[in-house]
Amino acid sequence: MDIRETSPEQLLQFLQQHHEKPFRAKQLHDWLWKKNVTSFEEMINIPKNLQEKLQENFSFLQTKIEKEVVSADKTIKILFHLFDGEQIEGVLIPSQGRVTACVSSQVGCALKCSFCATGMLGFTRQLRFWEIIDQYVLMNRRAVEAFGIPISNIVFMGMGEPLLNYDNVFKAIEILTSPNGNGLSPSRITLSTVGITAGIKKLADDGFKANLAVSLHTADNSKRSQLIPVNQTNTIQELQEALRYYVEKTNQRITIEYVLLQHINDSLEDAEKLCRFCKAFPVKINIIEYNATDTHFRPSTPEKKAAFVAHLESKNLIVNVRQSRGKDIAAACGQLAIPLRVIERSV
Ligand code: SAH
What we know:
Helix content is about 35%, strand content about 20%. The chain has 11 helices and 13 strands. It has helices at about 10-15, 25-35, 50-55, 115-120, 130-145, 165-175, 195-205, 220-225, 235-250, 270-280, 300-315; strands at about 65-70, 75-80, 85-95, 100, 105-110, 125, 155, 190-195, 210-215, 255-260, 285-290, 320, 345. The strands form 2 sheets. Strands 12-11-10-9-8-7-4-3-2-1-13 form an 11-stranded mixed sheet, with helices on one face. The chain has a two-stranded antiparallel ribbon with strand order 5-6. Strand 2 and strand 3 (about 85-95) form a beta hairpin. Helix 5 (about 130-145) crosses helix 6. It is elongated. S-adenosyl-L-homocysteine (SAH) binds near residues 115, 290, 333 and 334.
């Protein structure tokens, strides 16, 4: 078993069995979750013989940075090599004194959204919670090296659907935000979901404190089922109810993500449908441009985009128009699909 899979009770029991003092448990916890070491040898206040006992009884599986690519806008796309040879991608996005890390929640993705390159990979396996934290830890080191500052924000917008790996994602966020872990503020973490209604309700019931974003992309139920197959079993109406429930319980504003696709979801009628969908709860709408993938979709024209945004604003909705980052290295939303297309340097 990996050392990070042990519960505090199991660790204490192990220490007792080996006639070690219980305070070692706290030291081990700090090495694993506060200082984020990647080997037993780095635990310098743990005596050598205990390090050896740990080594004999537990594995310490490794996540490594395999390759990275740097965009003209300084965004860095990182390919991670997991302990079993699987690969995932993460992205570091610097902007005015901040660095956002975009992390993956699964190897591949099962959703098959029609405009997304990750969907074409299919689903391979769930990430363990510590593999999610490994992405943060490794990217944080790179952020400090490359930009001189640590990661300020984390978004679960890489590969995979976080709410279809609920327990691992929830646990990773708990550790990242715990004062006994990395101590990050929950307000700096955003979980983005395609709209898994059961998962959204569970987040509310479990007292989720980070931000929630929903990749809506259209408020028309039949259109959404065509674009996003999982909508067939998580309909617009069910999604609206789940979000109402979430807001009632958490008192948090929801972010709605909306990729404008030419002739698909960018008419004024579409904008009006979006307004009606958002009436039920407080939202902020992020308008995202379509990033090229191997699909037949096209981005909306600037005129269509402006009219769409103007309609939302005329209904007093808060709208942000997002600029894509890292498009030249296929690191933007929807473009994460191994292999890395342009490899400038291997690590
Ligand atoms: N499965 C989660 C997390 C992925 S986040 C979710 O759906 O929210 C990745 C975001 O990029 C999602 O909002 C997704 O819909 C969006 N996206 C996918 N393909 C895209 C593309 N080609 N251009 C722009 N955004 C895209």
